[in-house]
Write a structure and sequence with these properties.
The structure holds 2 protein chains of 2 kinds. Chain A is mainly alpha-helical. Chain A has helices at 5-28, 40-52, 69-83, 88-99, 114-141. Chain A starts with a helix and ends with a helix. Chain B is built from 5 helices and 7 strands; from the N terminus they run αβββαβαβαββα. Classes of the chains: A mainly alpha, B alpha/beta.
Chain lengths: 142, 181
Amino acid sequence: MLYSKKFLILFSLSGILGFIIFFSPLALSESSELYVFNSTQKKSQFEEIIHEMRCLVCQNQNLADSNALLAKDLRLMIYRRIRNGESTYQIRNYLISRYGDFITFRPPFSHLTYYLWLSPFILLLIIFFIFLLKMKKFNNDL
Amino acid sequence: MRYIFPLITLFIIVYFLWQGLAKDPSLLPSPLINQAVPEFSANDLLKKSTRLRKKIFLQHWTLLVVWSSWCVTCSKEQSFLLSLQKHHIITIYGLNYRDDLRHAQLWLRQQGNPFQKIIFDPQGMLAIDLGVYGVPESYLIDPQGIIRYKQIGLLTANVWTQQMAILINQSNKILNHTYEG
């Protein structure tokens, strides 16, 4: 025999241990919150909303990732509303009416946010003009 | 001369970053200011048999305080709320947020009860309707049931005199003025 019996037992034991350690995060993952939907479309709608809404307690996490109490409540509320047949648009509007634009990671274009949305293009224009000026100077120098 | 443009750009960037440092990210403006209190129906924590509805906010100014027995900061504003109630300065309602009935009642016995009515919201669903994201939070609601001010975090005597009391006085003045005129 190439390997002793003792070695084989130790080897398989460590294999099992490794298996347990590797998969234990799955056992610890949130299983109390399994939302059941009657269609895959509704499930994907739910996933879409909780991934693009911000948790207001831990502000750089979305609702899907956050473990805060408020995030849990908001997930439950979104779930109930989807079950009642509300559209993504309706649910998003409701959340914004309660928590403000800050709750969405994609703020709408409004009088408060136009600066935010337009600033890249304004910057691009400025750079373009500087570029033109420099080119002109360069040509004159030639 | 050639450094002027980059310098100006640098200053603009520094100005915006500096501003960001001074801001408290947890202080978010509520979109519910100057909006009506949403319709609701909930149990009273103090009297189990009564249902509370939106109309309890009509006819008088109300201070609505969101609290929980598990909230440490909440007990810090309790003495101030009790003194408000003792001098009959304003009607104070509570909104008991995500709490256990027994824990909440015990907490009231230990800390004192400044609330005339307490909306019991064990699941936090009404709180979402009000845009609550933590405890404590306080809302100032006018006699028409419109939210006029929201305080996130501890309600101190300073916040009361400098923000809330001023709002009440202002609208009372306008009222008196129209009566006189």
